[in-house]
Design brief:
Elements (H helix, E strand, L loop, with lengths): L1 H26 L12 E11 L6 E11 L10 E12 L10 E12 L6 E15 L9 E18 L2 E9 L2 E4 L3 E3 L2 E10 L6
Antiparallel strand pairs: 1-2, 1-10, 2-3, 3-4, 4-5, 5-6, 6-7, 7-10, 8-9
Amino acid sequence: MKIMKLSGIFTMALGAVLLNFPIKAISQVAPAAYQGTYPFAIGAGASNFDVDWGHNRMDGFTIWGQWRPRPNGVLAGLGIDAEARDIAYGRSNHIAPNFKQATFAGGPMFTIRKLHNFQPYGKFLFGLGSLDFHGKLPYYTHDTRTIYAPGGGIQIRAVHRLWVRADYEYQMWPNLFGNKTLDPQGFTLGFNYDFRPQWR
């Protein structure tokens, strides 16, 4: 009789522990300091590029988005950067009036966050490049290529969540017009808005 009573008490206690455990486990998924925040940043800036078409530099604009996990996690410093750039302004007289370059790319980035208000970063992007030009063939005025774009820069905190971003990028457009590789490169200066104020 005593054994049956002890067995019943043990069963009820075990059931209570098992029912309570998932609730506690779920409640500890995210620290309170990170709840209600988003691991994203977005930005825009003005670009100036050597388009590798003769000796021409042109202007344009770039928009980007970043995803980065919380800084004290296993992937601290690693993230993803996605960019769209349009270089279509400031053509010289030696370049076709329709000439422009547009790129859409994304890939891994690594940010050094230990410097608080200064964040150097590196990136390696993959994507698509679009080129408008004036060629020898009358109906061949546009081409697209897969591109590779290593780069890096620095982000400097301006105020609270707003950062200034200075970025350098070197692009590789392989096998354009036969074996030619187009290598545009240039700088972008703009602002980055960070949705997670806890980042340092």
